[in-house]
Structures are given as C-alpha cells and as structure tokens.
Amino acid sequence: KACEAAEYIKKMHPMWQEPLEMPGGERQSPIDISLRKSVFDPNLKPFVTQYDPRTCQQIWNNGYSFLVEYDDTTDKSTLRGGPLEDKFRLCQFHFHWGENNTWGSEHTVDRHLYPAELHLVHWNADKYALFEEAIMEENGLAVIGVFLKVGKRHEGLQKLVDALPAVRHKDSVVEFTKFDPSCLLPESMNEYWTYAGSLTTPPLTEAVTWIIMKQAIEVSHEQLAVFRSLLFTSAEEEVQKSMVNNFRVQQPLKGRTVRSSFS
Ligand SMILES: Cc1ccnc(S(N)(=O)=O)n1
Ligand SMILES: [Zn+2]
Predict the structure, then answer these.
(1) Which residue, among 134, 126, 112, has the nearest Cα to 209 in the 3D structure?
(2) Which of 51, 76, 176, 248 is the most buried (most CB within 10 A)?
(3) CA 165, CA 226: separation in Å to the nearest integer?
(4) Is there a contact between 194 and 209 (Cβ–Cβ < 8 Å)?
(5) ipTM passes above 0.90
(6) C-alpha of residue 104 to centroid of ligand 2, in Å
C-alpha cells in the first residue's frame, strides 16, 4: 500500500521529482516503525511541553504545506525531557496529508498508513542561537509527530481549519494568534517512539530527533477535506494544483534502532 502510493506520487507529483535522496544519507526520514523491532528503553522519561499561545504569530502556505509559526526569540514555548538532553524551542507546526483518507502520513506503524500527520518543529536553544543554525547540526532539532485519524470533529483544530481559506495559494500569509498547540497533542504523552532521523522536506538535513506519539488524534472527514482545498500553486499560476499527498516516500532504516517509551 505505502509503496504503491509512493510510486503513484512520484509519477504524478512534480514536487517530488526533485532529488528525493540526501546524497549518502544514513539517517533519513520518514520510516516505518516496526513494533516488533522497536526496543523498550526504561530510561526514556516523559517529555514536557510548555507552550505559550501568545507566541503564535501567523499561518503561511509555503508551497509544501501550511505552517503555523511561533515567535522563537525567547524561551516561552519549549519542549524538554523524553529522549532530549537539552531545552528545545517551538518554531512552527505543519501537517502532511493525502488526497483521500487511505494514506497521507509520512511515518507508518507496522506499515499502517494514517490519513495525515502533524509535525511540531523545535530547535535546540541550549546549543544554538537560531533555527537556521540548528537545522544543520546533528542534535539541532526535535520534531514531535502526531498521527491523525478520521473520527469526531477536533474542536481545537477548527480555529485553524477556519483560517485556511485565507492561505489557499502558495506564499500567502495570514495573521493567526493565541493558538495553543498542546490542544493537538494526544492525552497519553508518555507513550512514544523515538529515533535519529532527518527533515522530510528540503534541506533534508540529518538533524532531527524524532518523537512519534503512539496515540493518534481524531479529526473529522470535513476538517481533512479543508486541508485538501489548499493549493501548491501561487495565485498567478495558470494551472492550479491541489495541495495533497505532500508526504515523502519512506527511507531505509540503515541499521537504526527505534526506541519505545513503553513496553
Ligand atoms: C522545518 C522543517 C523543514 C523541513 N522539513 C520539516 S519536517 N517535515 O521534517 O518536519 N520541517
Ligand atoms: Zn513535516
């Protein structure tokens, strides 16, 4: 399923014709998380997020996804604990989704595809001064991945969904404030997988400690349909392309171990 989807996407999607492989990549993302191959690590602590909704600034359609961007010039919205040694600052979150509810996530669990995946991107503020620096360093970033599944309407997400028509085209930006992204996290925060990986869109740098939550969040079919109403293309382009299937094909594990915080 995933590989068929991937082949289909590669064929159909100009966006993914770019060089998809980071040359010599040893720790690329996304990957399939195999339950039987992941290793329970009892030393993994629960992780702590402290998000201040006042740092929420805007939504931007960058032509790959839509990003909700936060002011990361101070330590107001941070992530620490779990597999992390340092304190990380939230800089943005975004999603990846499919053209239908059959596929759309970047990571899979025992090859199970979800219709979408949320990424909350943080950078190591103990070691670096800017996101742009951290993105090039091995321990520079921490991304929390949350799977979305179709079910009841997600009340917290609706404020974001209502703002999407304003950023329909690539390069559009709209002010978006007072949004607390912790409403998008699952109840159980102490069950996750973690592994050393990369960004899944350019520059594909191998700078990411991935933290993938075991519990998916539920969103409605209608909410996902609004994601699919976005466009890859800017307003002046004559041919408009729906923003769907904005996920990367899965990458070889190359001997990496995925640790789980639960047995
Ligand atoms: C900030 C950023 C850039 C590229 N790719 C990602 S992702 N999809 O790995 O979270 N995040
Ligand atoms: Zn992402």
Answers:
(1) 134
(2) 51
(3) 8
(4) yes
(5) yes
(6) 11
